[in-house]
Amino acid sequence: MLDSLVTSKTRIKLLLKFFAHANSGYLRSLAKEFDESTNSVRVELNRLTEAGLLLAEDEGKTKVYRANHSHPFFSEITGMVSKFLGLEDLMERIVRRMGEVEKAYIVGDYAHGLDSGTIELILVGKNLDKAYLDFIVDKTYEKIQRKVQVTLLDEDPGNIQGIMVFGK
After folding, report:
1. Whole-angstrom Cα distance, residue 101 to residue 167?
2. Residue 114's CB: how many other CB atoms inside 10 A?
3. Which Gene3D superfamilies does the record cross-reference, listed alphabetically (predicted)?
4. Please, what are the domains in the chain?
5. pTM score, two decimals?
6. What is the mean pLDDT of residues 72-88?
7. C-alpha atoms less than 13 angstroms from C-alpha of 59 in its C-beta half-sphere
8. Per-residue pLDDT reduced to its tens digit, 36-58
9. How far apart are CA 109 and CA 102, in angstroms?
10. Which of 101, 102, 109, 167 is nearest to 129 (CA)?
11. Tag placement on the chain: N or C end, fewer CB within 10 Å?
């Protein structure tokens, strides 16, 4: 869906980076991460900054880019990116059908703004349906081509950092 609306592959990568993970980045690290030329990344960073979607701040000699949380379309773009990745749907289905899920966290590379192809989840709850979990992991791979690794916990250790938290 997103790739049919946005024709630049580099721009899609930037939108995913900044609006799925709420991270910051600078030109050279983004070019290296995306395996793109610095020029192509610079062009798209400039376009997104001029549109007000990204903020650019100088940190020493480096310009650091971040998503503009006060942009009127921030929530909508974040929602589109999340739907594109299938994360929102995945988390809602898991929370709804797994049993007594108290909290669900996305951690690991996705929480740090990297798309390694693996989504790591931590589910906290009791009497969780492990058969359904196996089914949804397989379906998720078919749908969004991402491997899902899930850790089940009986109680919340209280120190988990994640990009999305669903549940009570």
Report:
1. 7
2. 14
3. Winged helix-like DNA-binding domain superfamily/Winged helix DNA-binding domain (1.10.10.10)
4. 2-76 (1.10.10.10), 86-167 (3.30.300)
5. 0.55
6. 77
7. 10
8. 999 999 999 999 999 999 999 99
9. 23
10. 101
11. N
* C-beta atoms surrounding 136 within 10 Å: 19
Token pair, residue 13, equals 């990568």
**Cβ(68)–Cβ(74) below 8 Å:** yes
Question: Residues 150, 77, 23, CA angle at the centre, nearest 5°?
Answer: 60
Q: How far apart are CA 25 and CA 11, in angstroms?
A: 14
The SS3 assignment for 144 reads helix
CB 46 within 8 A of CB 77: no
Non-local (6+) Cβ contacts of 46 within 8 A are none
| Burial class for 72, CB neighbours closer than 10 Å (0-12, 13-18, 19+) | exposed
How confident is the model at residue 103, as a pLDDT? Answer: 82
The residue type at 126: K
